[in-house]
Structures are given as structure tokens and as C-alpha cells.
Design goal:
Cathepsin B, Chain A; alpha+beta; 8 helices; globular; 8-stranded mixed β-sheet
Length: 270
């Protein structure tokens, strides 16, 4: 539809080249970042297949986005209806584990499973030997496909301590594995939008920010397009964790898309 543009949530900010410095220069002790730029060659882990989603002609983007908004079938709509909060890494350097863990929570919502909050620290701490250091999202997702994520019931979200590393915790984590996933080509907005149009959340690493977030919705702006993301800095950031990355700020340097998690309870199908 000519002239269509997305409705922006009241508290959302649009992050572009001009606004980016104010976003980057937050207190890292309070918020935490921790992304290590993806230095390995694309696909080097050998576990994630390239995305099989067909690209959508850009001429169709406005109509597709408008349909999603009118039918309340954006990822943000579905997650909000389920009452799933954003993550809060609370000063840890595990953003790269928070975004993939949140993707698993989202995929479970889409499959009709009950909301269970998952512990990013259970992933980050095990990978990094209980050091509070950075990583990257593909690294975290690779771990999740093999081991799952421990629910916060057994491992608090930000607890970097081996006392929670128990057989009971990892037995429960078996219920929260990813069994289908894709690698999204870096800095490819068309491939990222193809996943979001299919309601597949994407953990995106952004070298310019030194940070990993979760990509939710394609957005039509007055000029050009953006990506609605959800941060891991608590519900008080942006609009319940949401903001929009515009133009080059939306291009991920590392992007992985969990597609199916266990248990596969059925549910929303587009």
C-alpha cells in the first residue's frame, strides 16, 4: 500500500548512525555487552546449515509487513501475548548467550509450549569455563543444540558459579534443545527479513555495538526499513526491551536462527 509505514511502539527508539553513539556509550558494568566479533570463516563450526528460506522480493515487503501488523502475527505480537519478558544480563558479558537463549524461549512460544525462562549463564559459563567473558551467538547456539539450556529454576539467569552445574540441571536442559536451525548470511538484510517474515527469531551479533540482540520484526519506516530487536538489558530499556535498528545498523555480522526446539508441541503455523 502506497505510503504505508509501521506503527512504532510508544517507547521505542530508532537507532541509526546518528543515535548509535548514545546507545553504545552505556555503563558496561550496569548493562554488559560482551560480543566477540566473529573471526572464524563463515560456517566454520560446521553445525548450522545455510538458510533454506526463499528470499522475498523487496517490492512485496510493505504489503507483507502491513499484513503482519494488521493480523497481529509479528513475533513481537505473539511473544507479548504470551507474556514472555526480555532478558536482563545484568552486567554479565553474556549477551551472546542471552540472545540465543531468548530465541529458544520464543520458538517454544510459537510451538505452543508453556513459557519457561531459560538461563543464559548456564550456556555462557559452561562454554567459557565460568569466566565472565565475551563470545558470539553461533558459539552459544552450537552448545544449545548439543546440550540444551538450563531453566532458571535450576540455574539463575546470571549466576556464573559451578554450584549450579549439576546432573539434575543438565538432565532438565535436555528438554530445551534446538533441533533445527539455520545460519543466516552476515550483513544480508534480505536473508534476515526472509527469516523474520517466516516468524523465525534470529540472534544477531553487531560488531559496531560489540553486542548481541534478538531480531524480531521487519519494520517499514518513513524512509527505508528497519529491524525491531529486543535487547537483554531488562524491560526498562526501550519499550519493554524493544527498539528498532535502521539501515546499516541492522546488518548483522553473525546471525543464527533457531527454528525448532524440543518439545515440539505444535502451535502457531504461518
Amino acid at each position: 500500500m502506497a505510503g504505508f509505514r509501521s506503527q512504532i511502539y510508544p517507547g521505542e527508539r530508532i537507532i541509526d548512525s546518528d543515535s548509535a553513539p548514545s546507545v553504545v556509550n552505556v555503563d558496561p558494568v550496569k548493562h554488559g555487552r560482551g560480543l566477540f566479533p566473529r573471526e572464524e570463516p563463515f560456517g566454520s563450526l560446521g553445525f548450522a546449515a545455510p538458510s533454506e528460506l526463499p528470499l522475498v522480493d523487496r517490492a512485496e515487503w510493505p504489503d507483507r509487513i502491513e499484513f503482519m501488523e494488521k493480523t497481529n502475527t509479528r513475533l513481537s505480537d505473539l511473544v507479548n501475548d504470551a507474556g514472555l519478558p526480555c532478558k536482563d544480563q545484568n552486567g554479565t558479558n553474556y549477551c551472546w548467550a542471552n540472545a540465543p537463549a531468548h530465541c529458544v524461549e520464543i520458538v517454544r512460544v510459537l510451538q505452543g509450549a508453556p513459557v519457561v525462562l531459560l538461563s543464559p549463564a548456564s550456556v555462557g559459563a559452561k562454554i567459557k569455563g565460568f569466566r565472565n567473558v565475551g563470545g558470539w551467538g553461533s558459539e552459544a547456539l552450537h552448545f544449545i543444540t548439543q546440550n540444551g539450556v538450563v531453566p532458571t529454576e535450576h540455574w539463575p539467569a546470571n549466576a556464573i558459579h559451578p554450584e549450579f552445574d549439576t546432573d539434575e540441571a543438565w538432565h532438565d536442559a535436555e528438554r530445551f534443545k534446538v533441533v533445527e536451525w539455520w545460519d543466516i548470511p552476515p550483513r544480508d538484510l534480505d536473508a534476515l527479513f526472509a527469516a523474520l517474515f517466516a516468524r523465525v527469531p534470529v540472534a544477531v551479533g553487531l560488531n559496531w555495538w560489540g553486542h548481541e540482540v534478538t531480531a524480531y520484526d521487519p519494520v517499514k519506516l518513513e524512509r527505508g526499513y528497519g529491524v525491531r530487536i529486543r535487547n537483554s538489558w531488562g524491560m526498562g530499556w526501550g519499550e519493554s526491551g524493544y527498539s528498532i535498528l535502521k539501515s546499516k545498523r541492522a546488518l548483522p555480522d553473525d546471525a543464527v536462527a533457531p527454528r525448532v526446539a524440543t518439545p515440539n508441541a505444535g502451535g502457531f503455523v504461518i
